[in-house]
Design a protein that fits this description.
CATH architecture of one domain: Roll
Membrane topology: Multi-pass membrane protein
Distance between the termini: 45 Å
Order of helices and strands: EEHEEEHHHEHHHHHHHEEHHEHHHEH
Number of strands: 10
CATH class of one domain: Alpha Beta
GO molecular function: oxidoreductase activity, acting on paired donors, with oxidation of a pair of donors resulting in the reduction of molecular oxygen to two molecules of water
Subcellular location: Membrane
Strand content: 5-15%
CATH superfamily of one domain: Cytochrome b5-like heme/steroid binding domain
CATH topology of one domain: Flavocytochrome B2, Chain A, domain 1
Number of helices: 17
Pathway: Lipid metabolism; polyunsaturated fatty acid biosynthesis
Radius of gyration: 25 Å
Main location: membrane
Strand order of the largest sheet: 1-2-6-5-4-3
Length: 462
């Protein structure tokens, strides 16, 4: 039970009563209908506020009953502004005898990490370069314009279509990395500006939902590779991941798919289907995990009411619908457009899936272990060697460790903070894993095969 106390104000009058709580009591409030969390030793009741949380109610709920100080600092670019929303939720503080960290976390490691973050702030590593992001957006728009010009001047022959598919696949992949930057509030100083541009890039260049992205991706960052909390490892019975889930599924004789072959059908399922009406994917398993998307919002605006290749209009005569005749030329144009759309989405899907999974699937995937921020992120992420191509090809997700530790840091500064992170990890014996790009792709397949074999052994013999 919380303990009461009073503090006197500067005026000499007694201040409002302050309640003190122990970690044992705080940890009990981690239910769907009862959520407390701790930020800088202050205790907040976020039960009702969670449903109004801009980042989604789940991400804040995943930290219930815990010290959320580092998560709070990681996700908010202006913590002082956010404090005004926290003030009405304040219910007390940690009791004086209680440690600042819950569940016997290494307090010195936590403090050293926070010192590292302060050092990065003093080095201006959270300040974005307008030139970098302007040029990045410019090269995406240039590819889109080039695609338009090619269609206008060269038509839709097979050579032109092949070149178009490569150009537009690249622009779509790079637009995906760019929306990621704005979604993480890592470009502008004001959150509102980031949100506005994020909606433009993901909505108009990608044809996806900003709200959907926020809802899923912030959960992933808060609790990476943790079952029931990270939606990216909720594979809807398509894959078994890690070392513990395969054995659990095997013992329960669960067999939604032949998981011992998952390293083989991953090659098919990674070509995901972004629109329920697009049949381009061989096995559109990833479509179940993706948001609804239009086929290509910039090149084919007719999909959303534009004027290119119009859908046939409907007329009536004596209340009877009349379907106008569609010319052979129009039908041919539609077929060519559909083939191009399918190729773009199929190729970009593979690009997206392999890059985003190379940092996580080969790492630890398990249930909640209540680690400190640094340790939990390091267990779930790894880096890919730096090069100009790797930086561009992966949208700087080859610096996945630094990105997860500091999600609001502009990506062009990851290489600057990397030595500090490696030094801190070495001090506390925390593994800092980095590998070549090719090995990272191979490790995805190897990890899936290992998990599939564990499942088969448990399924047959346990």
């Amino acid at each position: 039970m919380g303990k009461g106390g009073e503090q006197g104000g500067d005026s000499g009058e007694p201040a409002a009563q302050i309640r003190f709580y122990t970690w044992e009591e705080i940890q009990k409030h981690n239910l769907r209908t009862d959520k407390w969390l701790v930020i800088e030793r202050k205790v907040y009741n976020v039960t009702k506020w969670a449903y109004r949380h801009p980042g989604g109610q789940r991400v804040i709920s995943h930290c219930a009953g815990e010290d959320a100080t580092d998560a709070f600092q990681a996700f908010h670019i202006n913590p002082t502004l956010v404090q005004k929303f926290l003030k009405p939720l304040l219910i007390g503080e940690l009791a004086p005898g209680e440690p600042s960290q819950d569940r016997d976390k290494n307090s010195q490691l936590v403090e050293d990490f926070r010192t590292l973050r302060k050092t990065a702030e003093d080095m201006n590593l959270f300040r974005a370069s307008p030139l970098f992001f302007s040029l990045y957006l410019g090269h995406i728009i240039a590819m889109e314009v080039l695609a338009w010009l090619m269609v206008s001047y060269f038509g839709t022959g097979w050579i032109t279509t092949l070149i178009l598919a490569c150009i537009l696949t690249t622009s779509q992949a790079q637009a995906g990395w760019l929306q990621h930057d704005f979604g993480h509030l890592s470009v502008f100083k004001k959150s509102s500006w980031n949100h506005i541009v994020h909606k433009f890039v993901i909505g108009h260049l990608k044809g996806a939902s900003a709200n959907w992205w926020n809802h899923r991706h912030f959960q992933h960052h808060a609790k990476p590779n943790i079952f029931q909390k990270d939606p990216d490892v909720n594979m809807l019975h398509i894959f078994v991941l890690g070392d513990t889930q395969p054995v659990e599924y095997g013992k329960k004789k669960l067999k939604y798919l032949p998981y011992n072959h998952q390293h083989e059908y991953f090659f098919l399922s990674s070509g995901r289907q972004d629109s329920p009406s697009s049949p381009h994917s061989l096995i559109p398993l990833w479509s179940w995990l993706d948001p609804p998307r239009v086929s290509h919002p910039t090149l084919f605006p007719a999909d959303r009411g534009g004027n290119s290749v119009r859908a046939p209009s409907w007329k009536t005569y004596h209340n009877q619908p009349i379907i106008p005749k569609i010319s052979d030329e129009t039908q041919s144009a539609r077929k060519k457009k559909a083939k191009l759309q399918n190729w773009i989405m199929f190729l970009e899907s593979h690009w997206f899936v392999w890059v985003t999974q190379m940092n996580h699937i080969p790492m630890e995937i398990d249930s909640e272990k209540h680690r400190d921020w640094l340790s939990s992120q390091m267990a779930a992420t790894c880096n890919i060697e730096q090069s100009f191509f790797n930086d561009w090809f992966t949208g700087h997700l080859n610096f996945q460790i630094e990105h997860h530790l500091f999600p609001t840091m502009p990506r062009h500064n990851f290489w600057k903070v990397k030595p500090l992170v490696k030094s801190l990890c070495a001090k506390y014996g925390v593994q800092y894993e980095e590998k070549p790009l090719g090995k990272a792709f191979v490790d995805i397949v190897g990890s899936l095969k290992k998990s599939g074999d564990l499942w088969l052994d448990a399924y047959l013999h346990k």
